[in-house]
Amino acid sequence: MYKFTLFTYYLIVYFASYFAIVSYLVEGSKPVLQGTVEALFVDRSQVIYPGACKVINSTARQLKICRKDPGLQIVLSTAKSQAIEACEQYFQYDRWNCSLVFNGKEKKSIFNKIYRETAFVHALVAASLSHAIAKGCASGDLYRCSCLRTRRKYNTTQLKSGRCGDDFKYAKRLVKNFLDVKQVSSDAVAEILKQDVLIGIDSIGEHLKEVCKCHGFSGSCTTKTCWKRLTPFSSVMGLLKKHYHHAIKKKIVTSPAKSPSPARIKIRLERERNKLIYVQRTPNLCVSTKGRVCKDRNNCATLCCGRGFTVSKKTISKRCRCKMENCCFVSCDMCVEEVDVFTCK
Amino acid sequence: MTGTIIENLSGRKLAVLVTFLLLCQVTCFLIGGLVAPTPANAQNILATVCKDTTIMKNDTTKWFYNRGKGSCKTVHLGDMHTDLSETDVVFAFQMPVPRDDRILDFSRWQQNLIGVLQLDLKYHSQMEVKPRSTITIDARLAYKNKGDADEDWKLYTRSVEKRHLDCGIEVKTEEYLYNCSAIPLFELGSLHHDFYLLNIRLPVDTPDMNTNIGHIQDLWLTVINQNGGFTKVWLSLKTIFFPCIIAILAWFWNRIHMLQRKPVLLEKMLLSLGIALCFLNMPLEYLTLHFDLPFMLLLGDIKQGVFYAMLFSFWLVFAGEHMLIQDASAQSSLKQYWRHLSAVAMGCISLFIFDMCERGVQLRNPFYSIWVTDLGTNLALTFIILAGISTGVYFLFLCYMVWQVFINISQKRQSLPTMCSVRRLHYEGIIYRFNFLMLATLLCAALTVIGFILGQVAEGQWKWDETIEIEYASAFFTGVYGMWNIYIFALLVLYAPSHKRWPVSENTSDTQNLSEEIEFSPLPSERNSEISSLTSFIRKTTVD
């Protein structure tokens, strides 16, 4: 079943690429969702690919989306660097330090199977994309953000009448569209990744803050307007990391006879709607934590897997006595400081 | 002798009238709920940080914007810039932002523009935001119209303003964000131009200026404007109500002039209430489609204030005129109510002064806010508290008077059995209808209050099923607006003098009734035969 759908998928992709003048297949063998997330997260080079999306090797469909809005390629590159930076920063002291391969072995890429980390990266990239798009709408970099009028009767001539506030809704729709979430829901793996992506998008939605302003009679609250405010991406990372720790392992029965139908998977996933799902247990990462720097004694206990750690004194120059200068810039002095450095044995 | 229409109207006709008015009311509510969009619309705009390389910083012909030809060079605030000073950094907000692949422009139907500034401040252990710190903003607003060149921005207004920063943080960790409350920045009473541009600088003219505002990560501006679709619906309602009320007012005044006597106080009050409503209904917004009228926000407040002042005074006089204990011979005048009315006047004047201090000054400087200085805050609070106290006192007065009226009516009711049956039935009917109108007033007031509270609690929209969506906020506005129009319409109709003669007092052979007639005749109310029969009845029984 899985193979069959993959086959039909190849067929579709084949024809799509046949008709498109410039078309690039994402990684050759993976569905759009998986391929795009992987391409955005793995590629750390500044290579500019041909086509309108620039940041990634995109499918014909994605190229079409990028061509429609020239601002999108900037947003994509923002989303990419934002996701990578945030991941590296927030997993600095974890066993998995946001590396692309496990234990430094080239063959063990986190994208080979669906590990806990793979699930997390999918959520992270989707969250970063929706955040960047919503921000792009607000700054005016994106031109095609829609007002998402709730009622159909407002046609384009009445554009100014509709509500135009919520950029996140548009971002959510565009990310789903870009990652082709609707199309991939044909097998178990795709279904799981789809859920991971949706959790990532919704984390942004959960972190929207409602702000209200009264502007009625004499400034009283007879008229009150509320809107949703986007919070910076770093504040969403906490929630995403929590999702990473609370992720659930699911078994996929591979033999064709027992393979559960997509409908049944859907039903089973329904119960764990708000959890990240992975399939493969992460290999033991303790092998690779040797020589890693940890934050404090508590952190070292977990990071060093009980092997213990060494404490060394080291003089480093560090930014200190920081202050705001000229309203908007941080200026700091450099101080030489002696600190304890914890290193795993 | 004649009375008002409500006393002579048959139950059936009254029922028809009430049903008709209720239907109008429901229509008003549904128009707001189904046709009109939300009353106001908010749009978030992220600041583009521009680099100002010019030497003359006070030049108001140089503008920074991020879309179109001649857009500015952007700066990333996260990077270190040693070559830039605070005067070189400009936060630009170009509004409106494009949507649906179109470059939008503001429409004059959108009426007004309110700007709210929000700061994303990062926590740094060495640069904490101190409590009660202020931010100084050099804000310049420019406008442009369709057909102008991309760089053709013209200065609208500029001002250097101070605002309080109200920020808190839960977990003091590096890179975490402060939770800052939104800062109201400007209010434009008229949205006359197509495009606006706000350029903000954060000057450091003195050493302590803008030093404790933390690390700015992003600056957001939320602009709120009235929805064009809502203005259209609102204006159509006004256009319908305005001639209706004028017509009924003319009819009412004509009826009074057909009488031989001079109009009594209650009728004068009704007339002025009708005029106040006309003032409120006047569809002046049509003018804003052609002229730049920044005073519309203020005028709207004044119009509403005048109307509510009149309505409150009317209720007082209405209750007072049915008090039953006043000197029957004296023609009542407003002077009798000066104590009660002073509460209304007090409340209105203090609200008016507050409004003039805030929105009045905003006519000159849209960035002005009274809440920034301590003196201003105290002043504003004083006036608001005064208005609140006056309202409280007023309602105490009103409740006391209404309570007295009900007590008097129930006392007089006890003397009803001594009258002849026909007359008694008639008087009972009058009391019933008086109560009915009191009930209507209470109902209207209660509905307004309940609607308001529901609006505060509920979200903007109510979904009944997939197809029907009620835009609650709009429905509340049109519903309440329609309700008070209909209420006053009903008052004008029902309290207009009636031409009908009383059948009971003319041709009856009942001897008991005859004796009542004789009893009635020496009363002043009988001589002045056109006074409201309710009051005449009440005065008669007082003499008893």
Mean pLDDT of chain B: 82
Radius of gyration of chain A: 23 Å
How many angstroms separate the termini of chain A?
48 Å
Give the C-level CATH assignment of the largest domain in chain B: Mainly Alpha
- Stretches of chain A where pLDDT is under 50 for at least 5 consecutive residues are 11-28, 150-162
Mean pLDDT of chain A: 78
DSSP summary, beta strand count of chain B: 13
- Helical coverage of chain A, percent range: 40-55%
| Count of distinct strands of chain A | 7
Could you provide a short overview of the structure?
Chain A has 345 residues and is α+β, with helices and mostly antiparallel strands. Helix content of chain A is 41%, strand content 15%. Chain B has 544 residues and is an alpha+beta fold.
Please tell me about this protein's structure:
- The complex is a heterodimer of chains A (345) and B (544).
- In chain A, 41% of the residues lie in helices and 15% in strands.
- Chain A is built from ten helices and seven strands.
- In chain A, the strands form three sheets. Chain A has a three-stranded antiparallel sheet.
- In chain A, strand 6 (309-325) and strand 7 form a beta hairpin.
- In chain A, helix 5 packs antiparallel against helix 8 (233-245) and helix 7 (188-206) runs parallel beside helix 9 (262-271).
- The longest helix of chain A has 24 residues, at 116-139.
- Chain A is globular and about 65 Å long.
- With 544 residues, chain B is of the alpha+beta class.
- Chain B has two domains: 5-39 and 229-543, Rhopdopsin 7-helix transmembrane proteins (Up-down Bundle); 41-225, no CATH class.
- Chain B is 48% helix and 16% strand.
- Chain B has helices at residues 5-8, 11-35, 228-257, 265-281, 285-288, 296-321, 338-362, 374-414, 421-457, 472-494, 503-506, 511-520, 524-527, 533-543, and strands at 40-46, 48-51, 89-95, 113-122, 134-144, 154-164, 167-168, 179-180, 183-188, 195-201, 215-226, 461-463, 469-471.
- In chain B, the strands form four sheets. In chain B, strands 2-3-10-5-6 form a five-stranded antiparallel sheet, with no helix packed on it. A four-stranded antiparallel sheet of chain B has the order 1-11-4-9. A two-stranded antiparallel ribbon of chain B has the order 7-8.
- The radius of gyration of chain B is 31 Å and the shape is elongated.
- Classes of the chains: A alpha+beta (345), B alpha+beta (544).
